Amino acid sequence: MLRRNARESFATIGKKVELSAPAVGKRVKQLEEKGIILGYSLKINHEKLGVATKAYINLSIHQSSTLRTAYNQIIHQEEVQRCDRITGEDSLCILGFFKNNQDLITFIERISQYGVPTTSIILES
């Protein structure tokens, strides 16, 4: 239930799982202390913020010696939502949000210094 709505009240959760609000609160606190719940996040309507293009960009790094440098530079770019080191032919998988296709092109040109990008635009999610 917390995964769907982290702001759900302990009383509401308690009613659905047949526990008191304090009992739910205690269990949630235990999950936080054990490191099972790492934090809470926010859902944002990116379209209302001007994001029209979302894309996955796999980057095959030119030289393994530049992988760490590329990762450290790319992860801090404003457009980057995620940057994961992955196995296989590609070294990085980047999720980026862009105002338009031109901003995506500019980003791809910027990261091409590190390797060969393969881009997939997200049509629906």
Estimate percent helicity.
25-40%
Number of separate strands:
4
In sequence order, what are the helices and strands, one letter per element? HHEHEEHE
Number of helices: 4
Instruction: Give the termini distance in whole angstroms.
Output: 21 Å
Strand content: 15-25%
Strand order of the largest sheet: 2-3-1-4
Uncertain residue ranges: none
Round the mean pLDDT to the nearest integer and report it. 93
Note the main attributes of this structure:
125 residues, alpha+beta, 4-stranded antiparallel β-sheet, 4 helices, elongated
Secondary structure elements and pairings:
Blueprint: H1 10-17, H2 21-33, E1 53-61, H3 67-74, E2 80-85, E3 92-98, H4 101-111, E4 115-121
Antiparallel strand pairs: 1-3, 1-4, 2-3
Structural commentary:
The chain has helices at residues 10-17, 21-33, 67-74, 101-111, and strands spanning 53-61, 80-85, 92-98, 115-121. It is of the alpha+beta class and 125 residues long. Strands 2-3-1-4 form a 4-stranded antiparallel beta sheet. Helix 1 crosses helix 2 (21-33). The longest helix has 13 residues, at 21-33. It is elongated and about 55 Å long. The model has no long low-confidence stretch (mean pLDDT 93). InterPro entries: AsnC-type_HTH_dom (IPR000485), Dimeric_a/b-barrel (IPR011008), Tscrpt_reg_AsnC-like (IPR019888), WH-like_DNA-bd_sf (IPR036388), WH_DNA-bd_sf (IPR036390).
